[in-house]
Amino acid sequence: MKRALYLAKKANWRTSPNPMVGAVIVKNGKIIAEGYHKKAGLPHAEVEAIMKAKEHLNGATLYVTLEPCCHRDKKTPPCTDAIIKSGIKRVVIAMKDPNPKVSGKGIEILKSHGIEVIEGIFEEDARKLNEFYIKYITTKTPFVILKIAMTLDGKIATPSGESKWITSEESRKLVHLMRSRVDAILTAYGTVLKDNPMFTSRIKNGKNPLRVIIDPELKIPLNYHVYNPPPATIAVVHERKLSDDKLKLLNDRGIETIFFSSEKVDLKWLMKELGKREITSLMIEGGSSLNSYALWDGVVDKLMIFVAPKIIGGSNSYPSIGGKFYKNLNEAFEVRDLKIKRISGDIFIEGYLKKG
Ligand code: AOF
Ligand code: ZN
């Protein structure tokens, strides 16, 4: 199963909206074939492995990181059919497929054909590997990472807005790696106006995320990087506050728009809109206000905080989280499963937001 997890990871977060899955076939104590799911639309891991096997699979054991699929209304045929036909006698699964169309049904079908099924081997690793997929397939909204690069005193910019660079180059490389893994980046016009960022992934073999920019009135000049694809951009604009001329400018450039009509864009609603576009994961790279909205709108799943050994101080410098606050400490947002790492001179903190 460890080998199957290793194979799954080879897809390098390129399978969206599908999960990353690895499979290994063992016969007489030997690995005789392996496979992984490379990309949505391409064969599933199990089928890859079965196709590659050069000998009969009668009596073989299949190790797979996700419950084999059994549904038909999709791009590829069900893996359960291929497994049953192959003669495989035992299937070891790391985790159930959370997809409501599968979720246990794949296992039942295998069992009803006399195949022995063992579940829950290295389940935690498998769940972590596919945290984007699990959130998306069960809620139809993206898994949201809030990324913050801040000083020891929790500031993200000086009072004049200077923020380049707070963290080390090594930390920034990790941000580029994360950009390469998520489907989209979310930011707002303030951040874009300040730095004219590209939000691309500038690492070897990096994949650029879609850029989602909250720019209600189109304040960002069209010659800024974000409005110059590739990669593609979605502008989140206000139904009434955006002039027709400006809308035409966006349309002429082929920039997709999402309209909202409330005073402030409701991020919960926006996540549903992005989910409809098959965005399964998203990283927020914004300023004090967007970070605050993200928390209070309840969309954050995971925090990734880079802390640099610097202190800016001052009450006019920008805090990592601005806006609203809790009056009582016992109400404060809580973060669970903290992981802490040193990245060159910085401290990297990762954790999941406790909800409800
Ligand atoms: C598996 N093995 O390697 C993967 C599975 O559109 P399709 O045909 O690729 O189907 C996508 C669904 O299949 C996806 O939502 C999930 O339920 C399952 N993914 N299942 O047995 C795999 N990638
Ligand atoms: Zn399948």
TrEMBL record:
Domain named CMP/dCMP-type deaminase: residues: 1-118
Keywords: Hydrolase, Metal-binding, Multifunctional enzyme, NADP, Oxidoreductase, Riboflavin biosynthesis, Zinc
Active site per the UniProt annotation: E46 (proton donor)
SUPFAM superfamilies with a match to the protein in the record: Cytidine deaminase-like, Dihydrofolate reductase-like
A single GO BP: riboflavin biosynthetic process
Gene Ontology terms for molecular function: 5-amino-6-(5-phosphoribosylamino)uracil reductase activity; diaminohydroxyphosphoribosylaminopyrimidine deaminase activity; metal ion binding; NADP binding
This protein's pathway: Cofactor biosynthesis; riboflavin biosynthesis; 5-amino-6-(D-ribitylamino)uracil from GTP: step 3/4; Cofactor biosynthesis; riboflavin biosynthesis; 5-amino-6-(D-ribitylamino)uracil from GTP: step 2/4
Entry's EC annotation: 3.5.4.26, 1.1.1.193
Positions of Zn(2+) binding: H44, C69, C79
NCBIfam families attached to this UniProt entry: eubact_ribD, ribD_Cterm
Listed name of the protein: Riboflavin biosynthesis protein RibD
Organism encoding this protein: Thermodesulfovibrio aggregans
